[in-house]
Structure prediction request, 459 residues.
Amino acid sequence: MARSLISLGVVLGFLGVNPCMATVDISGNLKLDKRFLVTDSVEIADYPYHELNIELESKPSQNLSLYTGLKLRLWDQNLATHSEDLTSVSPVYPCEFFLWEAYVDLYSFILDELDIRIGKQRIAWGTADKLNPTDNLNPDDFSNPLNFGEKVPTEAVNATYYITDEYTLEGIWLPSFKPILLPRGEFPLLDDATALPLPQGTNLVESVDCLAFPNRKLKNSMYAAKLSGKAIGYDFSLSYFKGYDDMPITNKLIVTLVDTLGNVKLDTYLGFPELRVVGFDCAGELYSIGLWGEVAVFLPEEVKMRMEMPNPADPLNPIIQDTTVLSDEPYIKFTVDGDYTSETGIYINAQWMHGFFTERGKDNLEDYIMVGIEKKFKNDEIKVAIAGGLEIKDIEDIVENIEEIEENYGTVIIPEISYAPTDNVKLLLGAFFLDGKPGTLFGTWEKQDQIYFKTEVSF
Prediction:
């Protein structure tokens, strides 16, 4: 610790800053999240976590600021499998404490109009409310899969050049790739390779998967650029991203016989395809209605999956099948968002999203219409809200035949009430009710109906 403080003092001294004059502002929040699944019987969900965030900020000089964010996550899971595990805290109280963000801001770097941010940072792109198809620089954080739109900060160099008062040009370099964060416990999110049809007469007894990350050579770095401005009263931006899809995709399956009884082992190999995204977003107001819109053109790398299966007729030469699991054909995701607050204080937000975060490929994008209504009472201490969503698996089929909606839909209803006894404390009680036809996202989550209770404290 002493060596770290000395190093920090040397760095600040090199930048012309007196370490004794630098003050540190400390803030943060505590979020307690308890959820109870209520589909078959009431049981405690194992994927949510409690969270403690600590933020440290310092501005030693006019042209320099430092920020560090620390995060502690605590899961209510029992991971002990043997009695000796009970001698350790981590199997019974699994937790993670890590550096969430850490960056330095250098203002007027070389040029008066140029600012630089270096370090582990969240780079938020897009204007829509959480459902942002242009926001692809940081990997998705599905640690809590029902907190849509969460991202994980990653290392980057972010340069912003102020062309005029209304126009800026942003250039970003991300030297290394980081993948999606998935939930602990049982929560269906990615495709299950073990659900694929196996050779007739075989029985799966073992399944192993292996991830292959992009090579860490400098030429495989990710980068992005964005031009932001204002026209006819609307804020807008044009963006470009070149990198990798943060969600793995299966590119090889090997089915191996383990005995003469037809028992087989499945080895699954997954990779992360290259990805380019061209985006546009805008935000403004029309007749007291806030409007946001985003559209992103995805240019993916083609991915073929090779499946090797035992050949009963010739055991030395397995059956090989190649299937295209991701075409290189461009596809479009978009979100249209609007909100309005009535004279009586009722707030309404509506969104139409084409293509969920985990969906890819032109023929695999579904439509989601989300509507939320909320009203505050008692000097804003109490807030009552209800949100609902309709998922449409194939909107073209429904346009051609309205009866098709019976086999193409998914729904979610989210009632919630919150109470803020003081300015820095909030208590929330709510629920998720999910339903849908097989093959829809909400349909795969239909066993995740739940009631949740949250406590949020800021300091």
